[in-house]
Known about the structure:
Elements lengths: L8 H5 L1 H24 L8 H15 L9 H16 L9 H17 L2 H15 L1
Amino acid sequence: MRFFSAVDENVGRNPIAQAMAKASLRTAARDFRIQCYLYPEGEPATAYDTAGSLFAVALKLVEGGAYADRVGALKGAKSCCDQRLSQGSRWHTQDAAALDVGMQVAEEIIGQSKPKEVQQAWLATRTVEA
């Protein structure tokens, strides 16, 4: 599952490409939220890493103070992903609700942000992880 795609700068400025990227994010987020409740307990899961990256980008976008009332849901979902990654990335069904809410908040924040802001937040999270 991918939430972001690297594209040429000219493509990224195209309003149609931007709309398609937002639609793709909505679809991927919806699919992830559904899978949260259907994935079997104890199975190996790469979803923690992918979702954790999305939560990190959303948290970077809200550093300025916007969405202050929703930051807790994002931090909780990111913390859940980080904890499970450190424990071997096995799926735990009790994580589904936290990840679902976190994904809804992240989708809303990223969807309402300007593409350049999202790009800068994504690049900043890549720098931190490296």
